[in-house]
Amino acid sequence: MSPPTVSPPAVSPPAASAVRAEPTRPAVRKGRHTLTALVFLVPALVVFGVFSWWPIVRGLLISFQETNLVDPAAWVGLDNFRALFADPLLGTAVANTLVFVGLALLIGFPAPLVLAVVLSTVRRGAGVYRFLVYLPVVVPPVVAILLWKWFYDPGHGLFNGLLGLVGLGPYPWLDSPDTAMVSLVLQSTWAGMGGAVLIYLAAIVGVPSELYEAAQMDGASIRTRVWHITLPQLRPVIGLLLLMQLINTMQVFTEPYVFTGGGPENATLTVLLLIFRYAFQDGAYGQAAALSFLLAIVLGLLSAVYLRATRSWSAS
Questions:
Q1: For helices 271-280 and 88-103, what crossing angle results, to 10°?
Q2: Where are the strands (E) in 31-137, listed by range?
Q3: Residue 59: partners with Cβ closer than 8 Å, 6 or more residues away
């Protein structure tokens, strides 16, 4: 007689609601994390919107209005832009700004790169040299400009005094339309290149040393190694610093305002200084906002060109 078969106990299938509940737990957890992140993000977004984006929107509105920022504004449409383009000083300011940008690129852009390459070869006292290079960045801009204003003094300035020892000068550095802009560029280059030098030095340190060793074994000179190894490896950094210098130099204000006030004969009048005159000397806030809006468009186009260029670099 065969033993009786014992069937396993019947297991009831899990309820449909329980089956559906399990996969939703990660979704619920993710939703809670997202909500928590938004709670912490909202205050920052509010502050950023109030102090960054709202002034931009407000300035755009003012460019189409006639206002003194106290009485109710009157909508004038494109009148501010028409008055802006009718002002002969606009062409002067744009031309002077482009001259400053060109001189800054010619003098101020390669100087930090050359100095960084030289400092990267220094082994003894490298920290001291880097400190001295970065020191002008620490000096407040107005203090540095006032110091250089004494250097440029045609009567008792340092530069004319040194040049007088070798029978040169004196030169009217800031008093002549021919030399005023160059004088501003020299000071701004000295004051601002310390940060660029440190960025270049950090990028040079990141270049694989095997490339230099292989080139040295092949008999490549220092100039060849710099041209064919260092510069190609630094191309993204060079492009970024080029964009930053273009943006900064097109917004130059402190140097012409403190050095010359736009003179002599408007030879150092820049776009940002003209905006300052419109707003705080003439009370033409609409024209100042209109010119600011046009300047922002130009800087935005420069940024777009940079992004397009870097995209092609990464694709190549």
A1: 140
A2: 65-66, 74-75
A3: 289, 292, 293
Residue holding tokens 């029978």?
167
From residue 195, alpha-carbon distances to 43, 183, 233, 255, 289 in Å are 32, 21, 19, 18, 31
pTM score above 0.85: no
Q: Which residues contact 287 (CB under 8 A, 6 or more apart)?
A: 80, 83, 84, 87, 278
Beta strands in the chain (DSSP E): 65-66, 74-75
Contacts of residue 41, Cβ cutoff 8 Å, sequence gap at least 6: none
**In the numeric block, which tokens belong to residue 118?**
């030289």
pLDDT in tens, 96-147: 999 999 999 998 888 998 898 888 888 788 888 888 889 898 999 899 999 9
Parts of the chain with a pLDDT under 70? 1-31, 312-316
Type of residue at 222: I
pLDDT for residue 38 = 82
| Amino acid making up residue 291 | L
